[in-house]
Amino acid sequence: MKKTRKRGIWLYRMTAMLFILVMSLLMNNDCLVKAETKNIMDNYVLSTIYEKIQVPRSENADGTITYQTYIRNLNIDVSNVDEKNLALSMKVFVKQVEGERNPLEIFTYKNLASFLEIADAQLDLDSYVNLPVKNLKRADGSDLVAGEWNDVLIPFSVGTKKSNFDPSKITWFRLCLTRLPKDIGYQSLRLKDVCIVDTSRKAEKATEPEVKKWDTTYNVGSVPLTMDKTIESAAYVGDEYKMTTPIDISKHNPEKMQLQMDIEVENLTNPGDVSPLLYNNGKQFIELSSAGSATDQMVQFNMKNLPWKNGKNTYTLNISNAEAGAGEIDYSKINYMRIYFVHTTFTDKIKIKINNIKLIDNTNQCTVPTIFSDRMMFQQNKPITVWGTGKAGNNINVKLINKQGQTVTESTVAVGTDGNWKANLQQQKGSYDTYSLQVYDNGTLIKTVKDILIGELWLACGQSNMALTVYMDMDRENILANANNSNLRFFLEPTYPAGQTGAQPLNPNYDVEGAYWGKGNDVNAVNKMSAVAYSFAKNLQQN
Questions:
Q1: DSSP letter, residue 205
Q2: If we measure between CA atoms, which residue out of 345, 66, 46 comes closest to residue 178?
């Protein structure tokens, strides 16, 4: 009996131990499941409605305010997904721009009429799914936060679905917040990543982009083309060169490749005037081709975008800003170049000399944007910031020097691992004294900016009225006759710095190709200035 009892106790203990072990495993598995719980915003994207949009604001006839955006030409089919798993996912940003109200009132105002609609057809009200948007919350149930992006997820199941809604035929989307009080002020309401998602599946993992190891050799190739011509009337004037040994730039980062050349300009009719090269109805292009001619596989640069200056200067064009021509160029075998002027409408005789043409890679070169160039102006009584690119780890020294040659402020910074640097200089008082700016890369002077003023900077912006240049103004002759104020400075940008055909930059660019600073006593620069902005600046200074 004792043995049997001991055996029973032993079996009992073994069973208990096994039970505890099994429970432990179950609990561990439960912990594993909990650890792998899906992020509420990590959902499979079925279709994107908007990548990003600023929601327009309008004032109604009764003075109330509406924010509304809609799209009526969608072509979305989500019929293969269980409707209980469908949701609208988006990021929402709202910020008060003007007025003292809480910007989130556009979602919470008591008399708000709000609509968030997904439908098969705009005019078929029975094909709608109406989702709640009043008192909108974050995906985790917390309140929206003004001034930052909020993750929002609205399941279709919490909306009102009409009888004719067909998830295979979605064409209509609308967000509307209306009947807001007129004293609510101005808000910036932005949406991005507006998508219909399947909440039962995780988002697809983005493929890691291939990291290319680019060749960064500075001097990639030279083009032995020279040009020494006089341009007049509408005649064709140009030169071309077919290379026996092609130039391969395909192993270089296209964002860092540049076409560089020396150009000397002389107006034989009106010395010093380069405006005929800026304003004429003709064609003036530089072409590169891999087909041995300009008939196929080529890109081109419009020379009207160059910051033409009198005398001899070095001009640089970014390969990434080249306009597409006939066929697609093969950058591994550039074998042809042409420079030409044709159908020009000016009567002046202009002598053009072009030489020292090179294709260069500026990856490891210390560079500063065109906004830091001769004749520029810094804002008075504000810290001065200068920035650029360079080789990671290099030391960049920036000095502001007065006309007596004394350094009044300087800063030394290291180039970051991303190739960018930013130097902060002490603020200066406004005056008519001129300064120069020197930039050193590891002790080597690489940039000198001359004839700098410290004063008041204004931003002139608008539409067609602001875009009208002095050259196009009916009072042009009188304006130019009195263009004698060298203390007026203005930064001039090309209308299409990236060309009119090719892809336009989605994000702000590091630099604006072809931009430069002009002075109020330079008729060539004044001609390009907005007539409204020029008159404003001149009158502001005088009064």
A1: P
A2: 66
Give the model confidence (pLDDT) of 144-199 as tens digits: 999 999 999 999 999 999 989 999 999 999 999 999 998 999 999 999 999 999 99
Type of residue at 435: Y
In the structure, what pLDDT confidence band is assigned to residue 359 with cuts at 50, 70 and 90? very high
User: Using CA atoms, how far apart are residues 93 and 479, in angstroms rounded to an integer?
Assistant: 46
What is the rounded end-to-end Cα distance, in angstroms, of the chain? 118
> What string of DSSP letters covers 324-375?
E-SS---TT-EEEEEEEEES----S-EEEEEEEEEEEE-TTS-B--TTSSTT
Question: What is the Cα–Cα distance from 483 to 493, expressed in whole angstroms?
Answer: 20
Q: Residue 30, SS3?
A: helix
Give yes or no for residue 205 having a pLDDT over 70: yes
Q: Nearest-5° angle of CA 377, CA 434, CA 444?
A: 85
Confidence of residue 410 (pLDDT cuts 50, 70, 90): very high
Quick one: average pLDDT of 491-506?
68
Task: Please report where in the chains the tokens 């950058």 appear, as a residue.
Answer: 331
Question: What DSSP designation does 102 have?
Answer: -
Q: Exposure of 92 by Cβ count < 10 A (0-12 exposed, 13-18 middle, 19+ buried)?
A: buried
Pairing state between β 350-361 and 323-324: unpaired
Confidence class of residue 502 from pLDDT cuts 50, 70 and 90?
low
Phi (first) and psi of residue 144, to 5 degrees? -60, 150
Supply 177's token pair.
């917040």
Pick from 31-45, 314-328, 486-500 the range whose average pLDDT is largest. 314-328
Domains of the chain, with CATH numbers? 44-198 (2.60.120), 219-361 (2.60.120.430), 366-455 (2.60.40.1930), 458-543 (no CATH)
Distance between CA atoms of 111 and 182, rounded to whole angstroms? 12
Is 481's pLDDT higher than 90? yes
Residue 417 CB-density burial (10 A; 0-12 exposed, 13-18 middle, 19+ buried): exposed
Alpha carbons 314 and 446: distance in angstroms, whole number: 15
Give the C-alpha separation, 130 to 174, whole Å. Answer: 10
> Order of strands across the sheet with 377-379?
377-379, 444-455, 431-441, 395-402, 407-414
CA distances from 288 to 224, 342, 361 (A): 13, 17, 17
Strand blocks (E) in 131-213: 150-155, 160-161, 172-180, 186-198
Whether the Cβ atoms of residue 355 and residue 291 lie closer than 8 Å to each other = no
Is the pLDDT score of 9 beyond 50? Answer: no
- What single DSSP character describes residue 472? G
The per-residue pLDDT for range 243-294, each reduced to its tens digit, is: 999 999 999 999 899 999 999 999 999 998 888 888 777 889 999 999 999 8
- The secondary element (H helix, E strand) that includes residue 286 is strand 283-289
pTM of the model: 0.60
Evaluate if residue 505 carries a pLDDT over 70.
no
What tokens does 189 get? Answer: 């309401």
Within the chain, how many helices (H) and strands (E) appear?
A: 7, 29
